[in-house]
Structures are given as C-alpha cells and as structure tokens.
Amino acid sequence: MTIHTNGSSSSNGIPERSVYLDHAATTGVLPEVLEAMLPYYTEKYGNPSSVHAWGRAAHQGLENARRQVATVLGCRPREVVFTSGGTESDNLAMKGVAWAYRRGVFDNKQPSEGPGHLIISAIEHHAILHSGEELEQHGFEVTTLPVDQYGTVNPDDVARAIRPDTVLVSIMYANNEIGTIQPIREIADIAHSRGALFHTDAVQAGGLLPINVDGLGADLLSLSAHKFYGPKGVGVLYIRANTPLMPQQHGGSQENRRRASTENVPGIVGLATALARAQQNLASEAQYVKGLRDQLIEGITTRIEDTHLMGHPTQRLPNNANFCIAGVEGETMLLKLDMRGVGASSGAACASGSTEPSHVLRALGVSRELAQGSLRLTVGIDNTPEDIAYALDVLENCVNELRTTEVAAKV
After folding, report:
1. What confidence score (pLDDT) does residue 7 get?
2. What percent of the chain has pLDDT over 70?
C-alpha cells in the first residue's frame, strides 16, 4: 500500500512519496479480503432471506462468515450479530440493555430497584458517551468514571460505583486515541460479582489483541471491520446467550430478531475473512507493528524537544504512538505533514474538525494549551522501517518550522 518513490503529487492527490500513519482511523482492504467479497456482488447477490437459489447462496455465505467470527471470538454463531459498524454496535449494546431493564426482562433486576444505572469511563468513544447522554434524557442514570494520567480506569472505582440497579458496565478494551489497554477482565469480574452485565468496545483491539470473549469476561463486545483491513460499513456485536437486550432497529426478523435490515453479505464476508486472517497472524503482526511504533516513539522523544508521550508507557496498543508537542498547533502540523506525504491525525477521526481539545487528553489532565499540539501516529502492516525514518525526518522539520514561525510572530 505504501509508495516509496519521490516526486510530485499523483493523479489521486496523494503525494508519490507517501507514508500512511493513521491506521487507527481506518485501514485499506487487503486483496484477499476483497477477493472473498467479490462473488457476493456479482454472482451470489441474492437476498439471504430469500428461499431461491440466489438467496440460499447468499445465506450460506452469511452463515459461513458467522461461524468464522464465532471461532475467533470463542462463542456460538447465534451470539454473533452483524451491524453497520462499531458505532451501531456500541449503541445497540448500551441502549439495548438499558431498555431491556426498563421493560422488566432482567431475571435478577427489576425497574422497582431504581431508574436503571450504567457505568462508563471518561475516555470512551463518542458512540458510548453520546448513547449515555441519550439514555439520561429518558431517565436512566450514567456514572462516568475518571482515569489516571495514563488513561487507565481503576477497577476499585468500578466497584464503588455499582448500585443495585446497575445494569451495564461499559469500558473500552483499548483507547482509540492514546492506545491505553484497560484491565478488562478484572473490571468484568467486578461487574458480574454485583449482578451487572459487562460490555467492551473492542474496535481498536480487533486484529491487535486477543478477543476471546470468555477470556475477557465480556457479555457484549463491539468490533468494526475497517480497523483490521476489512471493508467499511460493517461490524459485529457479540451478545452472550440469555443477555437481556431490546432491538433498537425494527423491520424484519434478521439477525435472530436483534437487528432488522437485509444483511450486507459482501461486507460481512469481508469482515469474517479479515478477522480470521488477523487472528491467524496476530502474534507476528503485533510484534512487527510494535517494532515500528517503538521506532517512532524513540525517534520523536529523542529528536524533538518538549514532546510528551500520551497513554500508558507499556500497557498500550502495539501500533499506537500519541504525543502532545508543545509550541505547535495540531491542525497546522497535520496540514504540513500531509503536504509532505505523511498521513496522521490529532485524535479520533470521528471528531475531526472540532476546535475543542480531545476529551481523552483532557480526562488525563492535559492542559488545554498542550492538548492543542496533539499528534496520533498509528502504524500498520503495510508500513516499513524506511517509512518511519522518512516520517521522523518530515515531522522534525515541520515542528521546527512551526516553532520558528511562532517565535518570530511573538517578536
């Protein structure tokens, strides 16, 4: 995917010398994934709910994919629900469980115990944060837990926050901005010991960390295909058997009546192919990108003064390097990097364009001024050590230019 020639911009607007370091935002579709998808666009294009031969062929592809995903997750195929992506999966987990409680379908809890309570952290993806805000508009109560300076949730805080009417604890597996990995199993055990369900947004962990649901203690788990070299617009919500959940999308009886809508069979086949491939190569690819990440961290911290690594120093995603660089403005830095062929971000892609500092960095206690110099670099299997060396040279030059300009402006 990465191009290693020098020259001017190509016809698609991407510089011919380009290094893509924004894999947390999205990844390219691998050739073998695309190859698996193509027949479901051109030959096996039937509606999987139809009874004729075209429908049966599509249905077979759908269920084969479901079994592939279940194998990776270590669950039963019926516990796999296909969605349009991580955002929908998070929404369905939060709202589906909350409204199941309100409808009185929990075996161990009844609405008479309280209005219904959920626990999340301050650094969750906006799909979780905004779902919580929406539920609060309907009388549910949501506790947002703080994190420490590394972005880690304290399991003791979870234990203290749980109430008799707590129906769900939702803590992300690994943060999408700073890469910090949470003590998921410990938190899940605490939730279960107090009669609450546990959901984890594992969108950034897919393809990089183990995602066996029993090992994690998850009752619900969200994934999105385009984070592990699959197509955009398709995701998974794992729902453990007998977990109370009210559908949030109504229409047909697809996905065992938990998510109405004709299934995106090509996308689902692509997701399953990408996830199975990622699981097969998990150890080697995680080690490879970790080496590139460490090359970035060492290079930036030694070559650029007044640079602060964000997130946990060791308990972090193997591909994530997030920094706050003093004396520069993040968006301007990104533009300069882009002009020189380096693709990066200042945080979550879904929050791009916001003038407000990252809610994740602010939760870590980072000052507003320093947070404005945020830079997230996330490597992928298509990157090389030569890419990283080039990106380091470009970044150092960009920061020096910006700081020189800032000093001149103050004189």
Report:
1. 40
2. 92
Q: Which residues are catalytic?
A: 350
Q: Please check the confidence at residue 177 and state whether its pLDDT lies above 80.
A: yes
Confidence category of residue 405, pLDDT binned at 50, 70, 90: confident
pLDDT at 158: 98
Prediction pTM value? 0.94
Mean pLDDT over residues 185-192, rounded?
98
Q: Encoding tokens for residue 108?
A: 């161990």
Confidence of residue 331 (pLDDT cuts 50, 70, 90): very high
